[in-house]
Amino acid sequence: MNIEEIKELARLIQETGLSEIEIEEKGIKLRIVGARPIEVHAAPPQLPPAMPMTMTVAPPAPVEQAAAPAALKAPGKKEAEEEKIPSSWKAIESPMVGTFYRSPAPDADSYVEVGDKVKPDTVLCIVEAMKLMNEIKAECSGTVRKVMVENSQPVEFGQPMFYIEPA
Is residue 39 part of a domain? Predict the structure, then answer.
């Protein structure tokens, strides 16, 4: 680097407003610092003027009866049937959350059908929970009167799965 190049760098610092510059060339480091620091004033950004917008709001779509939540619907056939269950019948409830199976295998017959006589140790179904198959027994003697859950459907804790008329 010669003196002319150094003068040129000093002139660039003054013209551009840089506060300093550092250059390394052929093992020689050169640092030039301007005489006065640059003051930076941050001006708030200029935003374009707001443009007027027009919004059109469509009226709400009509609610169909089929789309209404179950709690808002009139009692259907299933709810009416549940209300007709005699108080003498014993509900066999799910002891856990899981999946209800009526048979030991997909191609096997159901453990019990409506009208079958059962004893306390008769297996009614399986509730699968966390890959464990839990046999659910009748817990009383009597006749199976209602099956409340479809095969392979989820069940909740305390949900009635069967109703048995005690003998």
Answer: no
Strands 132-137 and 123-129 turn out to be antiparallel
Statement to judge: residues 28 and 89 lie in one domain:
no
Q: Are 162 and 92 in contact, with CB atoms under 8 Å apart?
A: yes
88/162 same-domain check: yes
The pLDDT tens digits of the residues spanning 53-111 come to: 555 556 666 655 555 454 445 455 555 555 688 999 999 999 999 999 999 998 999 99
Give residues with Cβ within 8 angstroms of 138, minimum separation 6: 92, 118, 119, 120, 121, 122, 124, 162, 164
Residues 143 and 113 sit within 8 Å (Cβ to Cβ):
no
- Cβ atoms within 10 Å of 83's Cβ, excluding its own: 7
- What range defines the domain where residue 88 resides? 84-166
Closest CA to 31 of 9, 16, 2, 14: 9
Whether the predicted model's global pTM rises above the 0.70 cut: no
